[in-house]
Amino acid sequence: MMRWSSLRPYVMVAPALTVFSIFFIYPIFYMIYLSFHSWDFISPDKNFIGLGNFEELFDSREFMQVLSNSFQYMLLTVSLTTILSLLLALWLNRKGMIYGFVQGAIFSPHIISLVSVSLVWMWLMDPRFGLLNWIFDTVGLPRSEWLTNPKSALFSLVVVAVWKGLGFNTLVFIAGLQSIPPYLYEAAALDDSPRLTTLYRITLPALSPTLFFLTIINMIGSFQVFETIAIMTQGGPVNSTNTLVFYIYQYGFKFFKIGYASAAGVVLLVAVGVLTLLYFKLLSRKVHYR
């Protein structure tokens, strides 16, 4: 008979695996199953239509714009958040009361509800009474329509996402900077290494695991954006801020085209999976673990 000591690990992880399978694995496979069917969420019958939902998706100009919006939002959010938080971390990685205060101040948006953040930024970006346009008037800059102009609406949502995530990314970068052995910088100082050379040759390679981690989670998180769009723009104006998750919500729970929405969900799953695999394949070798 098998001993209890050999069964114990499986028994210990069984509850977590059960919950994970019920709430993560099963929904994914059920979504894939629904993507091959036509279903209105009400009738008990699901009509098998094969690849019909996918053909309809990729024949839709609306969906192609949504796909383009999603990739633009991801690229802008990830790049701006990473660059700005790295610069802030390099500045704040020192002792002093003022630096500790600034760290706490920029981290505070991370713990605020995204719904509250969206409502505050809606007021800030109000074209008539918003604080941002009042500041623009004060300094003599032209007013912006922010969320009501198709050319600026998506970037306005990017600004909100960057502001929300900046503090978390900065503190993770600071933790990474503080884990770099001081003797590396001492050796660079003895060699009279310029600051930019030290940054490029020591700091960035030593921070590569942190950069790798933050880029992955920011990329996945940017594809999952929903609350800010649902509250601030509803996908408008003229579909300019509609992204995949909100598009899935619209067709699934407003128009009750469950099969079509599931097909869009499969596209989202594949897009995130492929980008993550490519990122691991192309950049994992450039990560330096000490």
From TrEMBL:
The keyword Cell membrane applies. The chain crosses the membrane at residues 12-33, 71-92, 104-124, 153-177, 198-220, 258-280. GO terms for cellular component: plasma membrane. Residues 67-279 form the ABC transmembrane type-1 domain. Its main location: membrane. It holds the Pfam family BPD_transp_1. It is found in: Cell membrane. One of its GO terms (biological process) is transmembrane transport. InterPro entries: ABC_transporter_permease, MetI-like, MetI-like_sf. It comes from the Bacteria. The keyword Ribosomal protein does not apply. Keywords: Cell membrane, Membrane, Transmembrane, Transmembrane helix, Transport. It is a multi-pass membrane protein. Belongs to the binding-protein-dependent transport system permease family. This is ABC transporter permease.
